[in-house]
Amino acid sequence: MTLSVAVSGASGYAGGEILRLLAAHPDIEVRTVTAHSSAGQPLLAHQPHLRSLAHLDLQATTPEVLAGHDVVFLALPHGQSAQYTDALADTPLVIDAGADHRLTSPEDWAAFYGGDHPEPWAYGVPELTVGGVKQREHLRGATRIAAPGCNASTVALSLAPGVAAGVIDAGDIVSVLAVGPSGAGKAAKTNLLASEILGTANPYAVGGTHRHIPEIRQALAAAGAPADGIRISFTPVLVPMSRGILATSTAPIRGDVTDAEIRAAWEAAYADETFVELLPAGVFPRTADVLGANVASLGLAIDRAANRVIVVAAVDNLVKGTAGAAVQSMNIALGLAEATALPLNGVAP
Ligand SMILES: NC(=O)c1ccc[n+]([C@@H]2O[C@H](COP(=O)([O-])OP(=O)(O)OC[C@H]3O[C@@H](n4cnc5c(N)ncnc54)[C@H](OP(=O)(O)O)[C@@H]3O)[C@@H](O)[C@H]2O)c1
Hints:
About 25% of the residues lie in helices and about 20% in strands. It has about 350 residues and is α/β, with parallel strands linked by helices. It folds into 2 domains: about 5-145 and about 320-335, Rossmann fold (3-Layer(aba) Sandwich); about 150-315, Dihydrodipicolinate Reductase, domain 2 (2-Layer Sandwich).
């Protein structure tokens, strides 16, 4: 049976990547694409690489246009999704790429976003360790899914195995990330002009203000860290690569564990995972090797002099960081083969 799908925000980066993946999905027909200022124009005017969807025109994003599909993807600026969710009550599966339905804590929502706190939905990172099982168990049969923040899921996947195994201390995490500007979306912004970002690295949201911080805390609490004992210093740095995140996260080693026991925590967590890989000891990932792939690639080091575990993670923010996570979660929710339409291989050089 072919499932009908509507994708909102289809002129943007996240919507475009969801469409690229869905176009190769054997069980899906993309029937409707919607946008805001671009409504009325052909999809290909904004996504010329999506040739197989050339027959689609962008419609206005309204509850009426989105209703009547088996699956609806919302890929809208944060704060825009919640207004559609009541109107989509009869839609069997709704997946939000925005932040609206990610946070369970009203206090975190108030502190980092503000306004009404929308209902939290199932978190779309299947490989996360949550209460002794994988998050995919909570996605089976889900009808409402919040796809993750790209930086948040990258850091959470980096550290959750060590937290769950009790070998790292979540009370002193430091994460520094190199991120590409596609993470900020397609809308024109002066600070994202080529003249502002080429040839330079620009830190931003320094000092604990980035909106992905509570999402990381939430994921690590779900992995088993004491909720009031998670401290994370999180610093993103904008670098001149279109896509990609390279996150270097470190945390103190807990207790009297051997190097082998530490590494075993990550090996056990990801040995059976298709889309999260732990590289051999001494090998670290490059963003170039995950471009276009639905893969989080991790390298692990143990620095005994600093008494810290270091995890370096590379993710394509638009694939494993957003659209791939959304489609993977959709597959699980619908009982389809989890890897359907998800690229394991990247694009290189
Ligand atoms: N980019 C990433 O790497 C990434 C990663 C994880 C999550 N996300 C999340 O995904 C969502 C979309 O991000 P993006 O990067 O794709 O942004 P984007 O490239 O700026 O695209 C935004 C899309 O939303 C539409 N839109 C703008 N204002 C709207 C409104 N008031 N009502 C309805 N539609 C509106 C735009 O339509 P027009 O172009 O026609 O105006 C466009 O299609 C955000 O919530 C973001 O946080 C993005």
